[in-house]
Design a protein that fits this description.
Elements lengths: L7 E2 L3 H23 L5 H23 L6 H4 L3 H8 L15 H23 L17 H34 L6 H6 L1 E2 L1
Antiparallel strand pairs: 1-2
Helix pairs in contact: 1-2, 2-5, 5-6
Length: 189
């Protein structure tokens, strides 16, 4: 199935596959962490998938195509502030990839996910079943800290995902800009 011939190319196939794979892995990890079996093996596997995807994204953010590179979308506070002032305008943004605010939201999500992975690897809920694979390398104080932090970062991630979805709806309704289709086709009208 080919990409449409019309529109500006925005996202390369690697970014699109990364995005949707991350959606599945994060949702599966959250679902399994809250409603899965008491033995969290599948939750761990979802976490390993997130770790691999975040690792890929960090590398792709340096060597990938222009719109995937962090240098192309992590802007100064002044640029972000100027962009925020344009949000009430009912016209689409001119950003080729992430807008200045969206770029920092992507960075925030990647940082929180990296924290989720790191704390998941060393936490120990003292149930002798659901211990992170690296829990034995740190003290029990660190294990307990990681357990609490893993849960808190989960809440932060849920808020960031909620804001991400709200932003997509805002851009669609207010700015009349479709942000979903380009993440499927790679092209923006």
């Amino acid at each position: 199935m080919g990409e449409p011939a019309t529109g500006n190319k925005v996202w390369d196939p690697a970014i699109r596959v990364f995005h949707w794979a991350l959606v599945v892995a994060v949702f599966a990890g959250w679902l399994l962490g809250h409603y899965g079996p008491l033995q969290m093996t599948w939750h761990f596997w979802a976490g390993y998938a997130v770790a691999g995807l975040v690792g890929f994204r960090l590398v792709w953010g340096i060597i990938g195509p222009k719109n995937a590179r962090f240098a192309s979308f992590l802007r100064s506070p002044r640029t972000v502030g100027a962009y925020v002032q344009t949000l009430p305008d009912r016209r689409p943004t001119a950003a080729a990839g992430h807008n200045p605010l969206g770029g920092w939201s992507i960075a925030a999500m990647l940082i929180v996910l990296a924290g989720q992975v790191a704390t998941g690897l060393i936490l120990d809920p003292e149930d002798y079943i659901n211990t992170g694979p690296l829990a034995g390398l740190v003290s029990s104080d660190w294990n307990r800290w990681a357990l609490g932090m893993h849960h808190r970062l989960g809440v932060v991630m849920a808020v960031l995902v909620g804001l991400h979805v709200a932003a997509i709806i805002f851009y669609r309704v207010w700015k009349r800009e479709d942000l979903v289709t380009p993440m499927i086709t790679g092209r923006r009208r």
